[in-house]
Design goal:
Chain lengths: 112, 112
């Protein structure tokens, strides 16, 4: 285990539903990230939080809404998603800008 | 903007043979380079990184990577492949903006 825990592991939701993904790390890291992994595409960086403040939003649609209430927890709130949003969503954390990132096992999201 | 390229979607090697997974990068400033491995239904696991110093970096599970500044490459290598090395491998680059960008991944298959 990497020390980064994501829940749920699997999620199926309708296009009108609202759900949230949760990520938790107790590694004492200062930065947390959300990535989207789709088949045959590079990992897409969605959001970066450093010291609980959002420092980057890579032009992600507003139907994805992140929240970082403290340095150990990161959420991704989902609403009115599209089928093309189906993917593996990965959370990661790191200690510093030059440090490696530690990844959770991901949430497999299916939008129906 | 920084980026990485993994020119091979798939690499096949026989068990016991040396393996190489290729990565080239484009980044302004000093590159911070990483290799990760992903097993089925799992998140990414850190293998090794280059920040500064020796061009040959040694990492987990017998893997190593060679940083070549003139060729802007950071190829992953292992002298003797194992069947259990079969997985998806990602090269990543991070710049001073704290963005970590990943390549599209290379699927390594080691056959007995």
């Amino acid at each position: 285990e990497t020390g980064v825990t994501q829940t749920p592991r699997h999620l199926v939701m309708g296009m009108t539903n609202k759900k949230s993904l949760k990520c938790e790390q107790h590694l004492g890291h200062n930065a947390m990230y959300w990535y989207k992994q789709s088949a045959k595409k590079p990992l897409e960086l969605m959001f970066v939080y450093s010291l609980e403040e959002r420092v980057e939003n890579n032009s992600v649609p507003s139907r994805f809404s992140p929240e970082c209430p403290n340095s150990s927890h990161l959420f991704l709130h989902l609403h009115t998603l599209q089928p093309e949003d189906s993917a593996l969503y990965l959370c990661a954390s790191s200690q510093s800008p030059t440090a490696e990132a530690f990844f959770g096992q991901g949430t497999r999201l299916t939008v129906v | 903007a920084q980026s990485v390229a993994q020119p091979e979607d798939q690499v096949n090697v026989a068990e016991g043979n040396p393996l190489t997974v290729k990565c080239t990068y484009s980044v302004s400033g000093n590159p911070y380079l990483f290799w990760y491995v992903q097993y089925p239904n799992r998140g990414l696991q850190f293998l090794l990184k280059y920040i500064t110093g020796d061009n040959l970096v040694k990492g987990s599970y017998g893997f190593e990577a060679e940083f070549n500044k003139s060729q802007t490459s950071f190829h992953l290598k292992k002298p003797s492949a194992l069947v259990s090395d079969s997985a998806l491998y990602f090269c990543a680059v991070r710049d001073s903006n704290n963005d970590m960008r990943f390549g599209a991944g290379t699927r390594l298959t080691v056959k007995p």
